[in-house]
Amino acid sequence: MSTPLARVANALAIMLCTTAALAQTQSLEMPPAPQASSAVSDPALQQRVERGRYLAIAGDCMACHTAPRGKPYAGGYAIESPLGTIYATNITPSTSAGIGNYSEQQFARALRQGVRADGKHLYPAMPYTSYAQLNDEDVRDLFAYFRHGVQPVDTAATATALPFPFSMRVAMAGWNLLFLDNKPFVPDPAQSQQVNRGSYLVNGLAHCGACHTPRNVAMAEKPGQRLAGAALGPWWAPDITSDPVAGIGGWSDAELRQYLTTGRAPGRGQAAGPMAEAVSNSFQHLHEEDITAIIAYLRSVPATGGGSGRSEKPAFAHEGRGSDESLLRGRASQNERDSLTTGAALFSANCASCHAADGAGSADQSYPSLSHNSATGALRADNLIATILFGIERKVGQTEVLMPRFDAQSYVNQLSDKQIALIANYVLQQYGNAELQVSEADVRQSRLGGARPLLARAQPFMVPGMVLLGVLVLLLVWVMVRRRRARQAR
Ligand code: HEC
Ligand code: HEC
Ligand code: HEC
Q: Is the CB of 89 under 6 A from ligand 1?
């Protein structure tokens, strides 16, 4: 790094405290900030620990390896994978419950090849397919940080127990053979150093593709459709290729920078759900030159049109069509939610206080306009529905952004699937992509965690399917043996 060491260390220390405080993925309650577990006296090692600290933030290890209200990196965070719940493990330097016994080689193998110290395979819920790109220096410094910069916690995280056949970790060896590209990052000589740095971050450490790249039936990222948009449970991580219509080609560099570092770019979109978490925990803390490199690289990612289908104009380009508020004035029932039966009335009662009756938002846009908003103008209504159901929680610097959730979590703001569908359709009609229709079933599916991929839907049939296959094989053997006997008898 070119900046003077002391300044870097200082900035990192502040950054770490803030990140630790922000690391909660499900609530804004703050966990204690991680402290150096042992005073490191060797200045060279200290330097690596500090570098590792930044890399851990850029890689967002905290997001998964810290449970809500849990100790930093002590694991236990439940990842609701479509195949079942996978618990992130304790990666503190505890020798009994964490990775205190890992050698640097074993740590590197876990990070880049998805193999634990005991030789068992990790599930790709740990994004080792992205971290496979990490270079030796970064792995070494991450190791130094997780050995010397993190407080050991001696409590083991909840163990993962997926249903058969996904419980067979050895199956991941076959999966890796097919889908793991385990070559470390090789810079593309045709691209600038900046674009190469961006590629290393986007595809490797910051693993944008883990969310934004569509997956095949075996749940591996499709290499031909890099960053073309993908479903994440009830959320949709949009196309962020250079495509001017489907992707972010129409965003300026300044807008992208603002979005990545604060979670909002007026007239373009806001970060909710998993993107809000990534901004809160990780991207807001990245060095300016790293953000610049990420943007430079995104500009170079070719449009594939893969995940998003076709459209005439970008998601953020939809103009508002005004308000039906005047039709509602003077109605006695306006505040009694249960008696509201139209989207316009429900919108007026639940949303207009912040987003204004005409959907134009507040003057300073801290309550954003619902037109010129990628959540309402997209080709899919996932993020609109999910935002109404689950709200928004994001903390950047000292600023907290909150939109209430309207699912059953709080009695006051409880809306039924039907009511949410009515509101969503009203919002789409008035302010967004009027061609979309949201059904009650769409809202129910989102409430339950989104569409399940084929592999997960097939799970209940796999055991009977394997039994059936076994019986067929036995039958075949039996027929062949009888034939041979008959031939010998002749
Ligand atoms: C998207 C979630 C996610 C992120 C981000 C993530 N991990 Fe993990 N990690 C997991 C899960 C889940 C497991 C356990 C998987 C399993 O049990 O198969 C795991 C396991 C591990 C293990 C194996 C530990 C053991 O139990 O033996 C190591 C080491 C590890 N992670 C390090 C890291 C580091 C370092 C980072 C950041 C650079 C990181 N992880 C980021 C989800 C994540
Ligand atoms: C944990 C999953 C996750 C990760 C990691 C992630 N994103 Fe996102 N991203 C999302 C989701 C979900 C949205 C939609 C958010 C919304 O509209 O509220 C999104 C939205 C965006 C948008 C706005 C697109 C639009 O049209 O509104 C941009 C730009 C973006 N992400 C860039 C990135 C970059 C660059 C990275 C890596 C440095 C990244 N994301 C990493 C999940 C993720
Ligand atoms: C208490 C104020 C408040 C209420 C009530 C409210 N919102 Fe929001 N809404 C917000 C804030 C704050 C944001 C995010 C601003 C940001 O990210 O910078 C937001 C963002 C959104 C977004 C963009 C989400 C994305 O992923 O980009 C949509 C769509 C939305 N609201 C729709 C609604 C609808 C529909 C209702 C009524 C059911 C509603 N809001 C009620 C405050 C509110």
A: yes
- CA 252 – CA 258 distance, rounded (Å): 10
pLDDT: which is higher, 67 or 409 = 67
Token pair recorded at residue 45:
């090692």
Indicate the burial class of 375 (C-beta count within 10 angstroms; 0-12, 13-18, 19 or more). Answer: buried
Identify the nearest ligand to the CA of 274 by its number: 2
Ligand 1 contacts CB of residue 122 (under 6 A): yes
Q: Each residue of 411-429: pLDDT tens digit?
A: 667 899 999 999 999 999 9
Confidence of residue 409 (pLDDT cuts 50, 70, 90): low
* Confidence band of 331 (pLDDT split at 50, 70, 90): low
Out of 57, 64, 85, 170, mutate this one to test ligand 1's pocket (max ligand atoms within 8 Å of CB): namely 64
Task: Compute the average pLDDT of residues 458-476.
Answer: 72
Contacts of 99 (CB under 8 A, 6+ apart): 89, 90, 91, 92, 93, 107, 110, 117, 146
Which residues, including other chains, have CB under 8 Å from residue 161's CB and lie 6 or more apart? 84, 167
Residue having the nearest C-alpha atom to atom 37 of ligand 2 = 208
Which of these, 76, 99, 71, lies nearest to 86 by C-alpha position?
76
* CB of 122 closer than 8 Å to CB of 106: no
Q: Residue 103's pLDDT is what? A: 98
Compute CA 38 distance to the chain's CA centroid, rounded to the nearest angstrom: 33
Is the model's pLDDT at 89 over the cut of 60?
yes
**pLDDT band of 51, cuts 50, 70, 90:** very high
Residue keyed to tokens 């600038």: 192
Give the amino acid at 423: I
* Nearest atom (ligand 3) to Cα of 270: 27
What's the rounded Cα separation, in Å, for the pair 400 and 183?
Answer: 40
Which residues are CB-neighbours of 110 under 8 A, at least 6 positions away? 99, 102, 116, 117, 122, 126, 128
